[in-house]
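[stage:ingest] chain + small molecule (flavin-adenine dinucleotide)
[stage:ingest] validated
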Amino acid sequence: MPILKSVFYTLSKNKSLNIFAQKHSDKLGVNAFVAGTNIKELDANTTLLNNKNITVTIDNLGEFVHSEKEADEAKNNILFILDYIHENQLKAHISVKLTQLGLDIDDTLCKRNITEILNKAKEYHIFINIDMEDYSHVQSSWNIIDDLKGKFDHFGTVLQACLYRTQEDVTKNADLRLRIVKGAYKENSNLSYQKKKEIDDNYLLLAKRHLLNGQFTSIATHDHKLINELQNFIVEHNIPNSKFEFQFLYGFRTDLQDKLINEGYSVCVYMPYGADWYGYFMRRLAERPKNIMLVLKQNMNKKATL
Ligand code: FAD
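[stage:predict] done
[stage:export] tokens:
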């Protein structure tokens, strides 16, 4: 891994910097990648996208959850967003990380929290996506997902193409709505492909496989080469628009988002929201140090309007 990527990745896991960064978000160009640090900003940015016929998935940011109280707070924040989506009729669903809900503390607590979220979401007909985190949480996340599978059908999860295990996971989960991503976490070579070409090849295999499974597939990548190839595959195999969408992270490739919408495809934007944005922000810099340019541009625009 090149040095700059490695530095950003190591910084993403630093709790003290996380606390510092929360106090200085306005000075750091955070809104290049974060859709709002409060509900007013989130609502405004969601409405802008919804008006363009783009749906969103809201991620209530939060890392370093190590107590039951913090996990309950995260759950309550998500319940609040569910109420907000419902009351304001936003075209939105939720993305959630299980560590936020207590996965590192106690499985029972985590299950209780995600069940409460799923129950409320069911009442409102809102979909819940369970995001996939670093490898140390992958199997424990699947244990919870497997348990939820018999009880709920309005949720899905994520496959990370960098991991060797995902070919098996896509086979076992042909009946689940899946988001296919490359994988945001740095993993060892005994668990994960290291070369871009290998990850891209596995990405295409997984996406094509799930598109043919007939369950809903979220094609989540900014990589136009992969998007082009999957568009051709979709046409060739007559896959209906109701069975897939393209997903992007907020602030990324807005040109491509607009192009896909104009071509009649469904597009969904991942909206990171809240004060605890630091880890998310650093991972975006780690996976593509060039993203720093987006942040600088954002800061320059802000200064120009002061
Ligand atoms: P990259 O390999 O980063 O980029 C490939 C090529 O795309 C680049 O070479 C360039 O040509 C082009 N490109 C990329 N970015 C830009 C840009 N800003 N401007 C212009 N060209 C660009 N990861 C997880 O581990 N778990 C999750 O739950 C998860 N959820 C996600 C949800 C969504 C909606 C998305 C989009 C990503 C998610 N990720 C998740 C992150 C994902 O795993 C990758 O880390 C991230 O998407 C970067 O990989 P990429 O597919 O965009 O391609």
